[in-house]
Amino acid sequence: MHLQNLLLQKNKKVMSSELGVRNEIKTPNSELNTPTFRFIADAMLGRLARWLRMLGFDTLYYSDKSDASLLKIARQQDRFILTRDTHFLQFKNLSDFLLVSSNNTLEQLIETITALNIKEFSISRCTKCNGVLVGSVERERVKGLVPEHIYMHFDKFLKCEDCGSIYWEGSHMKRFRETIRRISGLTFKNEKPAVN
User: Fold this and answer.
1) What φ, ψ does residue 194 adopt, rounded to 5°?
2) How many CB atoms lie within 10 A of CB 23?
3) Are 58 and 125 in contact (CB under 8 A)?
């Protein structure tokens, strides 16, 4: 599906079954104002998983798990499955999944946020490990942990509490956020330093 067609359909709550989405998507919240979805993405959606993390969504990704393993983890941890695998259509009593149709990561992201009626994002997840980003870290505490030019030009930093990765509001994240706003009309909650 082309991005233009996705944009035309962005106000629909549930996308058509031609896109591989179940006609009834069960959502944890009818009005999604914060990132409350917890996702698990299959092996074909690694970049989408990273982008969802950039938007603050708790998103697991495994490149080596079977469908049965993904399903087991999703049920144990109450996660919504994102997949490109049509095999999931054959599972009975499975409604917490989205069959993503596009090969393009940006289109996949728009398809996901449109189908699930997501309205707002909050930067709060590490793109590398899915850990939670800890609030403002003092500039002095990141000296030697980030490139010198970054240290000299930025004052606000976030740190992943799991892997220790340091994040700052660089041009990459600003462009990403502006692209998401322009395409989807969605908003970011609590503008903060974010992923680079």
Assistant:
1) -145, -165
2) 9
3) yes
pLDDT at 186: 66
d(C-alpha 15, C-alpha 141), whole Å = 46
Q: Which DSSP letter does residue 19 get?
A: G
Domain ranges of the chain: 3-13+32-121, 133-188
Among residues 152, 146, 196, the alpha carbon closest in space to that of 172 is found at: 196
3-state secondary structure of 80: strand
Helix axes 105-115, 46-54, angle to 10 degrees: 60
Residue type, 73: I
* Cβ neighbours for 38, distance < 8 A, ≥ 6 positions apart: 57, 58, 59, 77, 78, 79, 80
Please give the model's pTM, rounded to 2 decimal places.
Answer: 0.76
Question: For residue 153, what are its two tokens?
Answer: 């030009």
